[in-house]
Amino acid sequence: MKSIIIGICASFFFAFTFVLNASMELTGGSWIWSASLRYIFMVPFLLCIVIIRKNLRPLLKEMREKPGPWMIWSFVGFGLFYAPLCFAAAYSPGWLIAGTWQITIISGALLAPLFFETVQTKNGPLKVRGKIPYRGLIMSMIIVLGIVLMQMEHAKELSFEILLLGAVPILLASFAYPLGNRKMMDICEGRLDAYQRVLGMTLASLPFWFLLSLYGLFTVGLPSKGQSIQSLLVALFSGVIATVLFFMATDKVRGNMQKLAAVEATQSFEVVFALMGEMIILSIPLPSSFSWIGIFIVIVGMILHSYVSNRRVESFVTTTKGA
Fold first, then answer.
1. Which residue ranges does UniProt annotate as crossing the membrane (predicted)?
2. Buried b vs exposed e over 222-247: b needs ≥16 C-beta within 10 Å?
């Protein structure tokens, strides 16, 4: 139960991303600065954590040995993830982006054949190519149904072009985030912990954020003091606190697939927290009944998807143990 509570707390802090990005957009802040400042501000926080854990030197050694892959996949995993997400904030409310973002669980499943997974058998570790979890994808259709219902009200108010500008970037981000992070895990091969990987990817993606900042400087000018402060809060709440809490929750249930599924499912509460935050902070109107039903369906779909996916993992491990 404690791990569930910690997971819900993590989703609460993750929701700050969607609320504060919407706030910055409403006050005239450019998505360019919302995206780039978050990662620039994350560096000192993550650097302190890794230095305190005495893990900086191994990270720098890894990055020096393979600078190309670090740059490429950090750009994919962070640059092509967060920049489109901030861009979408100009066209959709934060709670709607948070709900649509849950489609990443489908995107991640479709990427499975691109990677190998290691399974422990009685004859030692066995590498097998990942397979698309079709049963999980069936459960994912529940999530898609919820997203469609959430978008219905929004679609009535906006042109098809504007709707695409809000949805397509999220779709791109949903593939880029798992692809970049999984590629980096393959490159590191377990030599670095999660904190080191996040710091390394943040550092390796800095050239992109600096270039984006330079573009913003010449097109929209410097960010306002308010946007800079809110970007700092996103970096602290979502980039540091939420990530640490989520890792803490998953560490507590490591090895128990059903409990791990329950912890992962808590992240669907981002939709609820983002909606509450926008209603309190930004005074947005209440969503329609269709949207409320959609939110509920997305949460149920996330829980069912995590349960089915992890039952599949347990079944596969049990089978290979007898091989």
1. 31-52, 72-91, 97-116, 136-152, 158-177, 198-217, 229-249, 261-284, 290-308
2. ebeeebbebbbbbbbbbbbbbbbbbb
Give the position of tokens 């390796």. 204
170 contacts: CB under 8 Å, gap ≥ 6: 84, 85, 88, 97, 100, 101, 103
3-state SS assignment for residue 121: strand
Cα gap 189→224, rounded to integer Å: 41
Contact 104, 174 (CB under 8 A): yes
The helix or strand, by DSSP H or E, that contains position 284, with its residue range, turns out to be none
Q: Using one digit for the tens of pLDDT, what is the confidence trace for 96-108?
A: 787 777 777 777 7
Contact 285, 83 (CB under 8 A): no
pLDDT of residue 178: 82
The letter for the amino acid at 281 is: I
The segment with the largest mean pLDDT, out of 66-70, 241-245, 296-300, is 66-70
Crossing angle (nearest 10°) for helices 31-52 and 225-234: 50
Residues in the chain: 323
Q: Is the dihedral of CA 220, 224, 230, 233 positive or negative?
A: positive
SS3 125: strand
Closest CA to 204 of 6, 59, 90, 26: 59
Cα distance between residue 180 and residue 80, in whole Å: 9
In 3D space, the residue among 318, 83, 49 whose CA is nearest the CA of residue 197 turns out to be 49
Closest to 18 in 3D by CA, of 98, 87, 105: 98
Residue corresponding to tokens 């994919």: 76
What's the rounded Cα separation, in Å, for the pair 289 and 299? 16
What is the average pLDDT across 54-61? 94
How far apart CA 147 and CA 96 sit, in angstroms, is 8
Q: 125 pairs with which residues across the strands?
A: 120
**pLDDT at residue 320 in the model:** 39
**Could you tell me the two tokens for 139?**
């459960």
